[in-house]
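User: Show me an example of a complex going from sequences to structure tokens.

Assistant: Sure. Here are the input components:
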Amino acid sequence: MANVTFDEVNVGDEIPKLEVTLDQMMLWMYAGASGDFNPIHVDKEFAEKVGLGGTIAHGLSSMARLGRCLTDWVGDPGALKRFKVRFASPARPGDTITFWGKVIDKSIEDGKNLVTLEVGANIGDGTVVLSKGEAVVEL
Amino acid sequence: MANVTFDEVNVGDEIPKLEVTLDQMMLWMYAGASGDFNPIHVDKEFAEKVGLGGTIAHGLSSMARLGRCLTDWVGDPGALKRFKVRFASPARPGDTITFWGKVIDKSIEDGKNLVTLEVGANIGDGTVVLSKGEAVVEL
């Protein structure tokens, strides 16, 4: 099911980037799916009032999209085994987020072919949304 | 905005568990919100045919619910700063997943009050869905 094989992956490889432009509808959809209806994500007026300058995206929705960037590359949604990020800055409706990954290690553990990637998410203006990200996929 | 203060949290504390019973509608909703419409999550017949015994939940949706267990406890969705898990076993419609967290460390870094928790998700029959989880929240 995978698009890539362990042998053809090399340390230093960059995986195809995923670009997503957020809109408020995506935040409402994610609220419905996750059950997290905190008004800072769904209510523009409230988010303005508490000083956020408008709604901000759920951090986990950015993490989910970063995960999709990885599984789109592998071609197998079950390949993602370990995943960590740091939530650096919020993303907002209108932002175009670029999700990226770079292979930093290959190893074989318990007969499993594991590839470790440095991963992250940025907005075009240089804002880092997800930092210190690391993911392990099994190929 | 937070429900808990740094001072009242102690190493060894367990946070309130979150229990979620999955149904197929939740998988379809998450597919819509995340853009991940892989048939193993949405098409029961396909998932049977490829030997999965039915659809399985998106791993990131379990991670999102574990994140919600943490932010419900803190009372501030912006408090979650770092988050990692290992995707151990899939969860399926009909499964009741228990999301849990236990405080393992408190520290002050750059003037920020940080609490580190061991976190995870299990199904009632003992299946571990998310293992080796760790989260850092700022209080």
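The lines above are the inputs; the final block is the predicted structure for all two components together. The beta strands of chain B are 18-21, 80-87, 96-109, 112-123, 128-138.
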